[in-house]
Sequence to fold (247 residues):
Amino acid sequence: MQDTITLVKMGGSVITRKNSYRNFSRRHTDDIAAQIAAIKGYMIIVHGGGSFGHTKSREYSIPGVIDDSKRNGSSLIHYDMLDLSLKVAKSLLNHGLAPYIFSTSSLFVSGKPDYTTPLYYMKKGYTPLLFGDTYVDENRISIYSGDSIMLDLARLLHPSRSIFFSDVDGIFTDDPKRNPDARLIPRIHDNHGIRATGGDATGGMKLKLSTLLAMKKHSGEVYLINGKFPERIRYIGKQEFIGTVIE
Ligand code: ATP
Ligand code: IP8
Fold:
């Protein structure tokens, strides 16, 4: 069915090593690319920032009111994100996809992103590749996160499937990296009883969870899957599936 639309978010925690500035995880990116290349129908790929976005955002205290330092900082972050996008695009190209990079800051018209051009390319058979980006908003420099891009696209397109790849097996009762007793939640419909930390410039898992729940209003199936084991997408709907389904 050519008309189905899949949205994919490649999380910064899996395509980069988040604690080391500009450290790209080529192998994980390639592994994800190999799996999603088999997806049929239209696809849009969004990637996050990881250590190409969040390290300098923290250092320059972005978002915030524009001054000379934040202007330089955001210019550097935008450059780093474009550089990361090129690396992701190369991996997608190597796996037979036809990505076309759109810098989301360039899509803003009167304070809102206009997706007309990326969608035009999608209809022509390309795979638009978008990324979390810094952008100027009146007198502030803001961040448009990959998760917000996913939500805005879901509102616009009502995709049949939305997949978030991150570096954990799914949503847990607590941060699995900090709490060894945290349990994986296979199916989730609200955020009750879940402790989610929000460490980075765009809110971390705390905001991601509310975005995932909001996505479900506009998208068919929504999943959070460990991008270090992207072959798990092949088990969606089966008993062996490991990940979180948002219901
Ligand atoms: P980016 O925002 O750079 O694109 P990402 O989308 O991959 O990255 P993060 O914002 O880094 O995702 O969120 C994933 C992290 O959230 C995990 O590495 C995990 O340590 C943390 N986390 C906090 N609370 C939870 C929770 N309840 N369940 C699962 N992960 C959690
Ligand atoms: O990693 C934010 O996107 P995210 C990217 O999806 C920047 O939250 C520029 C920090």
Notes: The radius of gyration is 17 Å. Residues 12, 48-49, 53-54, 57, 77, 81, 132-134, 143, 145-147, 201-202 surround Isopentenyl phosphate (ligand 2) (CB under 6 Å). The chain has a mean pLDDT of 95. The CA atoms of residues 222 and 240 lie 17 Å apart.
